[in-house]
Write a structure and sequence with these properties.
Chain lengths: 802, 250
């Protein structure tokens, strides 16, 4: 009898789609880093499935078909049901450290969301148990399905809202149960009818449950204001955009506005991404005089040092920086924006309001990721503005600590400097935080970029000023002139902005208008340009070392050694100094590690039965499946990061790389049986290719960067193919040896592999933050070699074959 | 008849008994809250003592501490949160709003340095707790709330608790309350991307404005805007905690 391969592929596609979808849904209702933690823990459903089936496999004998159908159907039902229940819980992430009930609600969320993954994993493991001789094909369809699911969900999110997609994924789960009935040519008629009915009601377009956002997100707060209403909402995998008008109490969103500004902003519409992160569209009737307020922010400084510059705005958003450039008399403006729906809102939906800003004769808008745009275009600019796009509250709470950022790295600033005309300026505006963090880190990153470009005295080509809540850093490819410094001083004193650094600054000039207890910014800038820089990095209580492409975590500031001091200040309002994103990552790892240890050891304690005498064999098996589960994930994650830079788009990179990895690994798994190769061969191949790629990819990508997107996607797939193909082999090769020698241990191996995948995904991020992605790949290679050395039943298998 | 009378007497007795229980429970609850409040004040004093070197004072103004020990904070939080009212932590008050950690409220109130004759403007009434603290200290408090439901319930609450020197208004705080200005102090608890210039104009010469910057549940830093007698403005930014960013010989 044949395994239900189509059903398996479909359920794996749905489960992977569900995982990506949950990330979207929870990022909207909660915050991205909580979404990450919750999903990581829920994915332990794979580990639990192995442990569970290991314990009950005897009882399930003879009931395989029913068990498979029920688990598939339960996946479908709980995918939607669990999420709806999660939404109804009174969980408030922001109170986790204050309210003892919150960790319990969080636990409830883990348990609810773990159910669908548990059911999906049960289906696959049941199939392994029932058809041990066809493991390769089952695993192959598992991976192929998952690959299709990864790309499918991202496509789906372009055409439907996340909640509708959730209904569809849920229906696909039910469909897989129905297909299983058909593949088995069994299953009671009522079950088929019930499944059909449930699917039909899920696909009925009328009723789609609403997403419930945390009441502490920016969008929820904005909508509470009298007269505020949501006037547009559109969704894509890049985010859920909500446009809000507030005629009674205008938004007036102008970060960094001087205290003595004579002018305020005209009416504005707010755009929230995933319910947070405000950007504004400003009313523009073609008369630039109403934009005078944009001359009274720190980011206006470069316009006072340049004459009618040709400007590149990286991160156009709702258009504030473009309006500023127009007001300041820029000769031409190129504006780059990643999300096409933001441009649609400005140019189409609210064209009357925004004056169709991006169609202005002096403005060209480009839908692209910033670095991809720079690499693919050869124009030179007088001014490049890096807009301030992250919200203060999220940034100050360290919510971006886990997010890779490829714009604030030494390499990125170097590439931008290359696009400047002689005497051109790169301007970067950041929030002021106390104690100073990102303002200093960007200063250090810029210094490193200038030094890398061969500048002997970077301080001569840098200027920094600060207002009460923003700082602006300028770097140029030439030393600033005395006339420019004169204009800088006038600009700053007229607007009550403080001088942080310019060539020749005196201590007495700093910290005048917006006084800090000590002139921290000035002191730090002086140290970062001086000979004692290393000592300053060491002594500073936050990590302000430059971010690089290998460690692109600009927003990671926490140093372990500062943690006890910060925690001791809880009662005195010290908790905001904690960087939540990073700490949650550690907490996630700790929770997942604890759960994994229990899950892996539980069968040993409870089932001191089977193959107990095989001393040593058990531990070899644990090591083997742990090592290959972990290393697969480490390589996948590290290469997604490498390809993000090449594909210049986080979304395409994740979709293309993830799908390519899974699909080619699926093919590798399918062919592993035919080749009947010892595991050392694919492992040797994986290690060699990974190491070659580490050195080959950066120059290759640099060379191929200007190619068209579709070509780059094709090249990426071709590059991933051989690596992933080989990576699909070790798991089925190992599992079929287990099946031959002790088939009852199959679920255990499956569970170990599941736990290792979860743990290594979390660990990969921690390792990348501290040591960089190169080390992540090296560790994966070590794990693969370890696996090859411990393949379970190695000698026995050899004999069997002979 | 007799039975009916007996019944009535018993019923009356029972009602009295229940009434007494309710009263005594309230008295007990009030006593409990009062003792928790004193404990909270002790904790704030301790925290300040720990922070002495950094905030350059050994204690907060005694009048501020006395206000903290007087205002019934539990009346300003939802019933479900009353048991946590006197813990040194921020609390949600509904409508996506919070009240700050008591230590931060005390520190902020101390920083604006008030005397009895002062008139204070508050932007962002919330549940009215900060307004009540201010009302204990000064002659008159004006407070503006943007969320209607919050503003209405805060006004009712402040009236019920006898804070007749607080005037509440629902609306946009951006323009301040020019009819009643200028003010000796302005406390802006509602988040804003910039400091509203109309508010700066409503600070009296020699007066001060305080703006906590951060998100709900988290006050990151405090911005103080001070206007001197000539009308010149200087801002000062302070961390609410004792934390020096450098170690070593710097």
């Amino acid at each position: 009898m044949k395994p239900p391969l189509i059903s398996i592929a479909l359920i794996c596609a749905s489960a992977l789609a569900y995982e990506i979808l949950l990330m979207r849904l929870l990022s909207i209702t909660q915050w991205h880093h909580f979404a990450y933690m919750i999903i990581s823990l829920a994915l332990l459903g794979y580990g639990v499935s192995g442990t569970f089936l290991g314990l009950v496999q005897e009882r399930l004998k003879g009931h395989f078909q029913a068990a498979f159908e029920i688990n598939a159907a339960l996946f479908g039902l709980t995918a939607l049901g669990s999420f709806l229940l999660v939404q109804s819980l009174p969980f408030n992430a922001l109170e986790l450290l204050w309210d003892l009930k919150q960790p319990l609600w969080l636990l409830a969320i883990y348990l609810l969301l773990f159910i669908p993954f548990f059911c999906a994993a049960n289906c696959i493991c049941l199939a392994f148990l029932e058809y041990p001789e066809q493991l390769h094909r089952i695993y192959s369809f598992d991976l192929l399905g998952a690959g299709a699911g990864a790309i499918g969900i991202i496509g789906l999110l372009f055409v439907m809202a996340p909640m509708q997609a959730l209904k569809l994924v849920s229906a696909l789960g039910l469909l897989s149960a129905l297909i299983a009935c058909w593949e088995f040519r069994a299953g009671p008629g009522w079950l088929k009818l019930a499944l059909l009915f449930a699917m039909a009601s899920l696909l009925f377009p009328g009723v789609t449950p609403q997403l419930r956002l945390s009441e502490f997100k920016g969008l929820s707060q904005a909508l509470r204001v009298v007269g505020a209403q949501q006037i547009d909402r559109r969704s894509s995998p890049l985010g859920l955009l909500s446009a809000v008008s507030s005629p009674t109490v205008p938004f007036r969103y102008v970060p960094g506005l001087s205290l003595n500004t004579p002018a305020g902003p005209p009416a504005q519409l707010a755009i929230f991404t995933d319910g947070d992160g405000i950007s504004v569209i400003t009313r523009f009737d073609g008369k630039l005089a109403s934009m005078e307020y944009l001359d009274h922010v720190t980011s206006a400084l470069p316009y006072h040092l340049l004459d009618k510059p040709r400007v590149l705005v990286l991160g156009a958003g709702g258009g504030a920086d473009v309006l500023q450039a127009l007001y300041q008399g820029a000769s031409r403006i190129d504006a780059v924006e990643l999300n096409p729906q933001v441009v649609e809102l400005v140019n189409d939906e609210f064209a009357d309001f925004s004056g169709a800003l991006f169609t202005h004769p002096r403005v060209s808008v480009h839908i692209s990721e910033a670095r991809g745009y720079i690499a693919g275009h050869f124009e030179k600019y007088d001014l490049v503005q890096l807009a301030l796009l992250d919200s203060f509250s999220a940034s100050s709470a360290g919510l971006y600590a886990l997010s890779e950022n490829y714009l604030y790295t030494v390499e990125a600033l170097g590439e931008i400097l290359d696009t400047l005309r002689p005497g051109g300026i790169l301007a970067i505006t950041r929030w002021i935080k106390l104690p100073p963090r990102d303002g200093l880190k960007i200063f250090a990153t810029a210094t490193a970029a200038l030094e890398r470009a061969g500048v002997a005295e970077p301080g001569q080509q840098m200027i920094m000023i600060r207002g009460w809540n923003t700082s602006t850093l300028l770097l140029s490819n030439r030393a600033f002139t005395a006339d420019q410094i004169d204009r800088l001083q006038k600009f700053s004193s007229q607007r009550w902005f403080d001088l942080v650094h310019y060539p020749g600054i005196e201590a007495g000039e700093a910290n005048r208008y917006n006084q800090l207890r000590q002139a921290w910014y000035f002191i730090a800038a002086r140290e970062l340009l001086g000979a004692e820089r290393e000592q300053f990095f060491e002594d500073y209580k936050f990590n302000i070392r430059p971010a690089t492409d290998n460690r692109p975590y600009f927003f990671h500031f926490l140093k372990w050694r500062s943690l006890p001091e910060i925690l001791s200040l809880k009662g005195q309002g010290g908790l905001p100094l904690l960087e939540q994103g990073y700490l949650l990552l550690i907490v996630t790892l700790a929770q997942a590690a604890l759960a994994s240890v229990v899950l892996i050891l539980l069968p040993l304690w409870l089932g001191k039965n089977k193959a107990k005498n095989e001393s040593g064999g058990h531990w070899r098996m644990v090591v083997y499946f742990f090592a290959i589960g972990g290393s697969f994930m480490l390589i996948e994650i590290a290469f997604i990061q490498k390809f993000i830079l090449f594909l210049s788009h986080p979304l395409y990179a994740v979709a293309v790389v993830l799908s390519a990895f899974l699909i080619f690994a699926g093919l590798g798994s399918a062919l592993s049986e035919r080749w009947s190769t010892p595991v050392s061969r694919p492992v040797a191949g994986i290690v060699v290719i990974s190491l070659v790629y580490l050195f080959l990819l950066p120059p290759l990508f640099h060379w191929l960067m200007p190619l068209h997107d579709s070509n780059k996607i094709l090249i990426s797939a071709v590059l991933i193919a051989p690596l992933a193909f080989l990576m699909g082999m070790p798991f089925p090769l190992g599992l079929s040896r287990v099946a031959r020698h002790h088939a009852t241990l199959i679920p255990w191996a499956w569970g170990i592999n599941g736990c290792a995948s979860v743990l290594s995904a979390i660990f990969a991020t921690i390792l990348a933050i501290h040591a960089g992605f190169i080390v992540v790949v090296l560790l994966a290679c070590v794990l693969y070699i370890l696996a090859a050395m411990t393949l379970p039943g190695k000698s026995g298998a050899g004999k069997a074959k002979a | 008849m007799r039975t009916r009378e007996t019944y009535l007497v018993r019923a009356a007795g029972l009602s009295l008994y229940l009434f007494a229980i309710v009263i005594s429970m309230n008295v007990c609850a009030d006593e409990r809250f009062a003792s928790q409040r004193q404990q909270m004040v002790r904790e704030i004093r301790q925290s300040v003592a720990d922070t002495t070197r950094y905030i350059s004072k050994s204690a907060l103004n005694e009048r501020v501490m006395s206000a903290m020990g007087t205002v019934p904070r539990h009346e300003f939080v939802p019933p479900s949160k009353q048991s946590s009212a006197y813990q040194n932590r921020p609390l949600p008050i509904g409508h996506g709003q919070t009240i700050s950690q008591p230590y931060i409220v005390a520190l902020m109130t101390d920083l604006v340095d008030l005397v009895e004759q002062d008139t204070v403007l508050e932007i962002g009434t919330g549940s009215g707790y900060q307004a009540a603290i201010l009302a204990e200290l000064v002659h008159k408090v004006y407070t503006i709330e943007i969320v209607e439901a919050l503003g209405l319930s805060a006004a009712k609450r402040l009236q019920k608790l006898g804070y007749n020197n607080v005037e509440t208004r629902i609306g946009d705080g951006y323009y301040g309350w020019p009819e009643q200005g200028p003010f000796d102090a302005i406390v802006v608890t509602a988040a804003s991307s910039h400091i509203p210039p109309p508010l700066v104009r409503q600070i009296k010469p020699g007066g001060i404005m305080l703006i906590p910057v951060g998100s709900q549940f988290q006050v990151q830093q405090l911005t103080l805007v001070r206007k001197d007698e000539k009308g010149d403005v200087i801002t000062r930014q302070v961390l609410p905690v004792r934390f020096v960013p450098l170690t070593g010989g710097h």
